[in-house]
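WARN  no MSA supplied for this record, continuing single-sequence
INFO  ligand: zinc ion
INFO  echoing inputs
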Amino acid sequence: MYYGYIELIPKQEYDSEVVEALLWQFLCALERNGQITKAYTIVKEQNYRLFVTFTKEDSFAEGNDGFYVRQNREKLKELFDLTVTVLGENLSSGRYCTCGERSALEMVTHRFDEDSPFVCLDCGRSVALYELPLLGDDVYDEDYTVIQYWQENYSAIDTLWMNGLCDRYSGNQLVKFDSALNKQGVLLAKELEKKAGCRVYYHLSCAYGKSVKAKKIGQDHIHYCPSCGELMERKKIAGLYTEDFCHTCALCYDAH
Ligand SMILES: [Zn+2]
Ligand SMILES: [Zn+2]
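INFO  complex generated
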């Protein structure tokens, strides 16, 4: 969530067409590894400046590089010195988790979300993707693209609903726990859980004009799990917000 720029100070002559292609690849790789957020650009003055939002203050450190970032950084370092200037906090991005250990994660997003879709349930903040295990075992699965594809799909469907269509298709995709969109998300959450060594809860929507089963207890309406049918457990997360959880199915809803 720190906005700033990476400046490239030339060490030798270079071909600007080759370098510019390399810079876009580098930025894309940084984003796919969760080191920067989506909104980035290149400004060419005397030197190239890459304007980015770093997810954490030290997210650009080489130790956080994934396979593709490392490949591109090495090529750039032959031609340039890379320096970082942080201008301040970017308020369109959230604060990130700095917990040493995390007892559980939640997978959640919405159409304006620019951050990682994983939230630490101990501090309630986003978790930088590069701090999480990679999902694939394949040599080509060296970043978090598969998670970002799901996030982009979710944002697209949420936008379709919110921008006025309010149709049955987009509403059902968001609310039904067994819709194609939510099945894709649950599958990814389960895969991450196997590798992360902690529970990964998948967040379901419960608005969008669709009725979701709940039990009135005092002033509260506690949700039933849409998968196993059991009453969920209401929990406050880091004193920030309250959600209902099914620990058997690893699903959760916002509390009402
Ligand atoms: Zn945390
Ligand atoms: Zn359940």
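The chain has a mean pLDDT of 93.
INFO  checksum written, moving to next record
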